[in-house]
Amino acid sequence: MACSQFIPSLKIGFLYTYWAPLGFVLSVTLIREAYDEWKRYHRDKEINSTRYKKVQSDGSSRYIASSQIKVSDVLIIEKDQRVPADLILLKSSEKNGTCFIRTDQLDGETDWKLKLAVPSTQSMDNHAAVVNCGAHVYADKPHNDIHSFIGSFTMVCRPGVIEESLSIENALWANTVVASGTAVGLVVYTGKHTRTHMNTSNPSTKIGMVDKEINFLTKILFTAVMVLSFALIAIKGFDGPWYRYMFRFVILFSYIIPISLRVNLDMGKAVYSWFIQKDASIPGTTVRCSTIPEELGRIDYVLSDKTGTLTQNEMIFKRLHIGTVAYGVDTMDEISNHLRQFYSAPKEELVDLNSTPSRNKKVKATPKIRKSSHTKTVEAVKGSFLVFIGMDKKCIYKTTIISNSLFIVFHFLDRYCIKKYSMLFCFPNYTFSMNKILENWALAPPQTTIPCWRLYITPPNPSALAICHNVTPVYECDSDSSPQLESKVYQASSPDEIALVKWTELVGLTLYKRDLNSMQLMLPNQEVANYSMLQIFPFTSESKRMGIIVKEESSGEIIFYMKGADTVMAKIVEFNDWLSEECDNMAREGLRTLVVGKRILTQDVYYDFERRYLQAKLSLTDRALKVTAVIETLERDLELLCVTGVEDQLQIDVRPTLEMLGNAGIRVWMLTGDKLETAMCIAKSSCLVSRDQDIHVFEQVMSRTETHLELNAFRRRAPDTALIIRGSSLDICLQYYAIEFVELACQCPAVVVCRCSPTQKAQIVTLLRNHTGKRICAVGDGGNDVSMIQAADCGLGIVGKEGKQASLAADFSVTQFCHIGPLLMVHGRNSYKRSASLSQFIIHRGLIISVMQAVFSSIFYFSSVPLYQGYLMVGYTTIFTMFPVFSLVLDQDVSPSVALRFPELYHELHKGRSLSLKTFLLWVLISVYQGGAIMYGALLLFDTEFIHAVSISFTSLIFTELLMVALTIRTWHWLMLACEGISLAIYFAALAVLKEYFDPAFLVSVDYVWRVVVITSISCLPLAIIKYLKKRLSPPMYSKLD
């Protein structure tokens, strides 16, 4: 349109009439984009110019910019310095070759990761030896999996060729930060081949529902422009160059499509974002996508993660079950007492089993007391400690292990019962045949003596809870000084492991030191127990278990410990009749369970395993499968030690927040990777599913027929029943009956999907959005929630224990789940209502002047001559009406307290009545009425001078717009009054300055004043009366609440 003004036959007025508004809009947009681009440029320049030390061939180092780094360079990375490229750790300042890194900007996890240097280069004396060692490094081709790396290190030396395998433990990915010491690394990937870059995807641009609705209305307005132009030409007649006249009409009516609408909406969104971030009731909230704040007011479904979202991801040890006895929070002191007695007991001299024990020791018979569980308790926590007391009609017996000795005490009531107890005592890993021992006492006088003897047994074995983990204690002191327990901080990749280690410290076993090859435990008697770590098998999402092989230094015993999920460990441990039941019981209490087992290895078995394991790690093809196959040879018939229960506490105010969302008509689905029982318990404890609500557990299905039958069973209960389904069953449903399943699930008040993978979460979001057409909000806190957050219409990330990856990928970042309530009920409501009013009023502003132009053209022989020219048209859409119209972004229909107290008000937002075709047509009718009233009134009331008609109509138009803003406002703000006053002052100043458009003498006359008052009253007074009557006769719901 603006370019057409360069054509003389199409020129309507002055060039600045069209180019000035267009230039203003483009300038605002370009300045904003240029500012963002300028910030990106300086940020990229700062990163690319970051200086790093590169090791030279003589061992010296020089600084180079990160943009100059290339593959095969050897770099020195200092503490707290970001890694510029993907490196292989060659040498660390730590003697044991370890290095901690922070990966929160890569995988979202806040815990430090332990990395290992290549042993061959770690042992070298200086950097020159590392650079000139002549080694070759093989690395697999670049891919986006940050949890895997396959490579090899080959070095030729005098003894021969040294070949070592490289894995993820030797890799430092770009964008991670060295947290301790200094690292020397070899660059293997740079630029777009780094893991960070390959995991960076361009997320799809999210377009809000308001923007889509405005785009639809804009299409209607464009059609209206073309129809109106064609109608005027048709009435005038298709004589002469009618197509040229029609195009001139299109240019004249182009104000119907206001170009300022997009700028005003974008500026309004920026204001909404500022309000959200400055809200004191939701501190720490960050708006990362300022284009969709209105979406917060249109949410129909909230899909939430469980761990770290509904729960705090702060693990607290709650339960220890050893098969016969369960210890809770109130009985943990018993375990501490057992351990304290065990380590404080005096050591006795050893006695030969074949010798005759003393008959002179008189001891009072042991009375019958309740059965104790010292054996399994201490075995689960620290070692083989046993107290067993029993009674029979013929005998009272007591066994106890103190230090490294076994004491057995009998009080025989009948000497003929001795043989009966020959095979009575069978302890974990030790079976005692009592025939040889008891035959010496076959003729013992009854009820006269209590024979007592002692056996030497193998020293107690450390268990998984104290040593089977990947936790490292970090002290805030120099490496050369002795560690202080008060300054200790535990670092691990999982909060579950930290909870277990903290609990063992609470009962008396403290993780004192840990390095690459050894671990030290502080015992209750302040002695230090040393253990060598032979192998560690880290936890992975595929294996769902972790293991460790340790060697107890004092005894030389080699033990394989493993812990993991019950579904996996049930197939690995020996047969038992209590594991499944107890795991289900803990899950019903909302506890996260871990099953712990062990296996004692002989040296021959371990050496054979070590040989096969190292050979598998050196393989360059199918390394992961071969390593897993070798490890599985040890995972057979493990002795079941215990089951632990860890509680993940609910977030603050989760229950009232979920209740608020339910009252607002928002349905909440919980998607979690936990087991079914745990998910069900959290759903009930958080009130996502009420206690008295029916629950349908979708059975495990494996085929299409089973799925069909289960869906039919679910269909009979669907409307009022909560659904709980496993991820594996969901896959089958989505494969065969996706639409049917979604239709049934949408009828449920709550849906819980357990054992759900990150990919499934995104699939559920996409399927639900495409099928229902509703607005979906996804809430998560970990890296596994990023795909779900990016797939949703509105993504909320919670900054939690699992890091910031979800927060950085989300559209809105909050610190607690309870902040979702104010974010949706208050800010979502206000943003949607304000944008709806602002957009429709701007459309009204363009329609009313276009209607006036149409009336003017039709009266004056359908001439395509503009009614207002020059600065009047420029000022109308900018300085004369801009401030009052934009002040609508401060309007609100209800106060925040009312919106939170009555979440039912959110129901009406789902219907989209604030911005709909009905409200649009209503504003069109208002524009037609007011435009016609102003134009016809001005033409009827003006005298002989046309400039007077311009003065009357334009002044009435400005006053009408300002009064309509006042009639639209529901809650006044002092800035709104200021904007009205400023606009009036600017317009009055323009009347005095723009003498070419206004007659100064006429402006001060009474005729001018009363004509403007009459026309303005005719255009606004009927609308004010209608609005008052509607408010009195049919008030909106929110007015009753106020």
Q: If you had to describe this structure to a student in words, what would you say it looks like?
A:
The chain has 1042 residues and is α+β, with helices and mostly antiparallel strands. The chain folds into four domains: 53-199, Calcium-transporting ATPase, cytoplasmic transduction domain A; 209-284 and 824-1040, Calcium-transporting ATPase, transmembrane domain, CATH 1.20.1110.10; 315-324 and 464-471 and 487-647, 3-Layer(aba) Sandwich (Calcium-transporting ATPase, cytoplasmic domain N), CATH 3.40.1110; 654-814, HAD superfamily/HAD-like (Rossmann fold, 3-Layer(aba) Sandwich). It contains 35 helices and 38 strands. The strands form eight sheets. It has a nine-stranded mixed β-sheet, sandwiched between helices. Strands 16-15-31-30-29-28-27-26-25 form a nine-stranded antiparallel β-sheet. Helix 23 (786-791) links the parallel strand 36 (775-780) and strand 37. Helix 7 (260-277) runs antiparallel to helix 25 (820-859), helix 30 packs antiparallel against helix 31 (946-968) and helix 30 (917-941) packs antiparallel against helix 34. The chain is elongated. The two termini are 48 Å apart. Mean pLDDT is 80; it is low at 347-372 and 383-462.
